[in-house]
Design goal:
seven-stranded parallel β-sheet; six-stranded parallel β-sheet; Rossmann fold; alpha/beta; globular; single chain; 353 residues
C-alpha cells in the first residue's frame, strides 16, 4: 500500500481547518489503512492523539525530508493555502513542499483548494511554475479554477469540487428544533478597523429585545475569544457565550440547534449549511462570496461596510420563512455534496494506481 503525507493548516486550533482534516481523512481511510497516513501539524501531539496516526512537526524540515523519502503521495487537503493576504510566507511554504516532494519522485495532489487572493506578481509566477509539477488539483469554486487557468496552469489537471466540510455529519438526521425563543448564532472575526463586535452587538441587542436568543461561538479560538469578550462587555448576560475550546463535533452540535447562523468566518457558514441551518453571511473575503453563491444565496453585506439593518432584516426573513429557506438550502447542499466525489475518485486512483 502506498504511503501518504497530508499537509494543510492543521494543528492550530482553527475549527474550519480541523474539520477539513477530519473530512479528508474520512475519505482517505476508506481507501487505505491508518498506518499508511502521516499528517504535518502545527501541534503534532494533539493531532496524533485525536486521530491516532503518525504526525510530524510541520516546521521540522529534517523530519519532513525523512518522511518524503518514504512517501508515495503528498496530499494537500483543502483550505486557502495558496494566498498571500494573511501571510506572505505561507504560500512559499506550501510551494516549497510541492517542489521537495517532486524531487523525491512523489505524486502530488491538491484537494478542494480555494486559490487566492494572490497579489504579489512574484507569488503568481511561483504558483504557475510550481503547480505545473502537481498531478491533480481539485478546487472548491469556479473562481479558483478560472484564476489558475488564467495564469497558465494546465486546465486538464484541474477539477471542480467543493469544501469537504459540506459532508460533515451528513449521516445525521436533522430534526426541526421548535425553538422558543428563536436562536441566532454568531461567528465573528477581526478585520482591520471594522469594529465588528460593536456593530454586531447592536444587531444582537435588537434581536434580544424582540424575544430571540443570541449565541456567540469561536471558530479560531485564539483570535475569536477576544471578540466574544468585547461583545460580552456590551451585552452582559443577555446573550450566550461559548468560551471554551470546542471540537468540530461540539461546534456542530451547537450550530445544528440554531434557527439562523450569522457568519463572518467561512466555515461557520459551511457548518451551518451542512446542518441545514439557514445562513446570513457577512463577507470579508471572496471565498465567503463564492461559497454563499454556491448554495444560491447572497451575502448580507461586507465586513468593511456592515449594514446592521440589512443583517437584522435578513435574520428575521430567514426565521419567518424557515421551512422554505431550509428546503432551498438542503437542495443546494446536496448538489455540492455530489462534487466531493471527485476527491475520493482521485485519491483512490492515485493510492491504488
Amino acid at each position: 500500500m502506498k504511503k501518504l503525507l497530508l499537509a494543510g493548516y492543521y494543528g492550530f486550533g482553527n475549527l474550519g481547518d480541523e474539520a477539513i482534516l477530519e473530512m479528508t481523512l474520512k475519505q482517505i481511510l476508506e481507501i487505505t489503512k491508518r498506518e499508511n497516513v502521516t499528517v504535518l501539524s502545527g501541534n503534532k501531539e494533539v493531532t496524533k492523539k485525536k486521530y491516532n496516526l503518525n504526525t510530524i512537526d510541520r516546521y521540522n524540515i529534517l523530519s519532513i525530508l525523512k518522511a518524503l523519502k518514504s512517501t508515495d503521495v503528498l496530499i494537500f487537503g483543502g483550505g486557502s493555502l495558496l494566498q498571500d493576504v494573511t501571510s506572505k510566507r505561507s504560500i512559499y511554504y506550501y510551494l516549497f513542499l510541492i517542489r521537495l516532494a517532486k524531487l523525491m519522485k512523489n505524486k502530488v495532489v491538491m484537494l478542494s483548494q480555494g486559490i487566492g487572493p494572490i497579489i504579489n506578481e512574484k507569488s503568481i509566477k511561483a504558483v504557475k511554475s510550481t503547480l505545473s509539477f502537481v498531478d491533480y488539483i481539485t478546487v472548491r469554486d469556479n473562481h479558483s479554477k478560472e484564476f489558475l487557468v488564467s495564469i497558465g496552469v494546465d486546465e486538464k489537471k484541474i477539477f471542480l469540487s467543493t469544501d469537504p466540510v459540506i459532508n460533515l455529519r451528513k449521516e445525521d438526521n436533522f430534526e426541526n428544533y421548535d425553538n422558543s425563543p428563536k436562536k441566532v448564532c454568531f461567528s465573528l472575526r477581526n478585520w482591520k478597523d471594522s469594529d465588528v463586535s460593536h456593530k454586531i452587538s447592536e444587531v444582537a441587542e435588537k434581536l434580544i429585545d424582540n424575544g430571540m436568543e443570541c449565541h456567540f461561538i469561536p471558530f479560531y479560538y485564539k483570535e475569536d475569544l477576544q471578540l466574544i469578550d468585547q461583545v460580552e462587555k456590551i451585552l452582559g448576560n443577555k446573550a450566550v457565550y461559548y468560551k471554551e475550546k470546542l471540537s468540530t463535533n461540539d461546534a456542530f452540535d451547537i450550530i445544528k440547534t440554531m434557527d439562523v447562523m450569522v457568519g463572518v468566518r467561512l466555515h461557520s457558514l459551511i457548518f451551518a449549511a451542512a446542518a441545514n441551518v439557514p445562513i446570513v453571511a457577512v463577507s470579508y473575503d471572496h471565498k465567503v462570496d463564492h461559497f454563499v453563491n454556491s448554495v444560491n444565496m447572497r451575502i448580507a453585506c461586507t465586513i468593511d461596510d456592515i449594514d446592521k439593518n440589512k443583517i437584522y432584516k435578513e435574520i428575521v426573513d430567514k426565521i419567518n420563512n424557515e421551512n422554505e429557506e431550509k428546503e432551498k438550502l438542503y437542495k443546494n447542499v446536496e448538489k455540492l455534496r455530489e462534487l466531493t466525489y471527485i476527491n475520493y475518485k482521485i485519491l483512490k486512483e492515485i493510492t491504488n494506481g
